[in-house]
Automatic annotation (TrEMBL):
Keywords: Membrane, Transmembrane, Transmembrane helix. Its main location: membrane. The keyword Magnesium does not apply. InterPro entries: Gpr1/Fun34/SatP-like, SatP. This is GPR1/FUN34/yaaH family protein. The chain crosses the membrane at residues 31-52, 58-81, 88-110, 122-142, 149-167, 179-198. GO terms for cellular component: plasma membrane. It comes from the Eukaryota. Belongs to the acetate uptake transporter (AceTr) (TC 2.A.96) family. It is a multi-pass membrane protein. GO terms for biological process: succinate transmembrane transport. It is found in: Membrane.
Amino acid sequence: MSNKANGAPGDEHENIVRKVDFSDSIGNPSAFGLFGFSMQLTLIGLLNAGYIEPDGAVVVYSFVLVAGILQLIVCGLAMLIKKELFGAVAFTVLGSFAVSMAMFNLLLITGTVQLHGPIDNAITAVFAIYAYIAFILMVAAVKMNIAAFLNFVGVVLLMVTGAASSHLNNQSLSMASSWFTILTGISGFYVATGAFLGETFRRPILPMGDFSMFRKVPAMKRRESGATEFMG
């Protein structure tokens, strides 16, 4: 029998608890999620604006559903592992919105769900809540860069006009929401392309703009992280 006291040097290998940190073990997932986000918005905007035939809705929402799960939500979880709060919140929240709306519309299209009355108030409430969340994300994006900020401005506008058009049953506002969705999708492709090329070539490729030019104090040196690459 061993006579070693607890905590003796010979027992150190038995008492060590190793902490595994996966935050640096995965690549930057931002472009992966941003391309899915941009594709979703562009397709939905084109559908709602009438540039995609009504029967094409099942195609659009199928892609939105799959991309929402495999790109936005997975990207959000990856951002969470990388300890990037902004990216985690943005991708998981917007991904959940996209998945929910896609599932709802697919259930309606296939006749799985039958509506027996108006749902304008429910749709208005959903868009209003997500308009608030998008506004908070837009405010936080001020700490990133101009391109990301403008992209979230578009998200806020499409959510606000979506809520207003549903509440007022106004076709003009509905069309405005469709165009805000298209333009936000296009601007999202720009941000996604910049993130992807910047990560691939390890240097900025597309200009993203910097809010430090509007500040009187020198801008702090940005930390190289997933969020930094996400925002340019």
